[in-house]
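Workshop exercise sheet. Pairs work together: one partner reads the sequence aloud, the other fills in the structure field after running the prediction. Swap roles for the next sheet.
Pair: D.N. / O.F.
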Amino acid sequence: TTPGIQGPLGIKGWMAVNPQEGQLCEEVLIALTKSPDETPVFFPTAPYQRPGLASTFNQPIMSSAGFRGRLNVSSLRGTYTLSAACRISDSLFIDPRTDKRIKINPIPSR
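Structure field:
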């Protein structure tokens, strides 16, 4: 069995609306969803410089596409889908390509 996450969850990555055009998200959030019919729990992230993205996409602004966060998941327990979400104006888009199943604060086996 895969050990689960206990304590704060550190995460970093990058996200953009259209990296080829240099169009960034206004805000990146991390979504944790327990099941498809439940509302996700959202966590804020902070900007994180990723200079290599500027050269990869030939868009200088892409160096600002990085994010990082330290998520307090102490109140959560179970298996969740972790996803990155991009806020643009009043819209929030959860990118399914970023989905990863994780176990949080699992009950220890005896």
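Discussion prompt: The longest strand covers residues 91-104. What would you look at next?
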